[in-house]
Write a structure and sequence with these properties.
Number of strands: 0
Radius of gyration: 18 Å
Strand content: under 5%
Oligomer: single chain
Structural class: mainly alpha
Largest sheet: none
Order of helices and strands: HHHHHHH
Length: 120
């Protein structure tokens, strides 16, 4: 069997990268390397990622990642409040204006400690 230098190099890079242990860890490594939350808090965040992306939140946003690092104490309530807000807009046939609006809403919710009123 013959190996090309490119194949050896690719395999070596692949093996030297830390392999994510969970979906949350993969998310942290690939999209949010600047987020420095403990594992439990990041797992809470990770369980909402799909919903947040569906309303347009940009996980790669540097401002969002900085805010997550600075305001981790209210993360689940803030996320639920933003998702609730997006649901209310949808019920009124409106939506968050764009991905920057959605991302800024989440950033503001984290900083201001938004609480959800109801969550289905």
């Amino acid at each position: 069997m013959r190996w090309s230098i490119a194949e050896i190099s690719r395999t070596a890079r692949k093996l030297s990268r830390p392999q994510p242990q969970s979906e949350a860890e993969r998310l942290r490594l690939e999209l949010m390397p600047a987020v420095d939350l403990d594992e439990e808090t990041f797992e809470v965040f990770a369980k909402y990622v799909e919903e947040l992306q569906s309303i347009g939140v940009l996980l790669e946003s540097e401002a969002l990642q900085d805010t997550l690092n600075g305001y981790p104490q209210n993360i689940e309530a803030a996320i639920e409040a933003v998702l609730e807000y997006a649901d209310r807009l949808r019920e009124k046939d409106q939506a968050l204006k764009d991905q920057y609006h959605a991302t800024n809403c989440l950033t503001k919710a984290l900083r201001e400690g938004w609480q959800p009123h109801r969550r289905n």
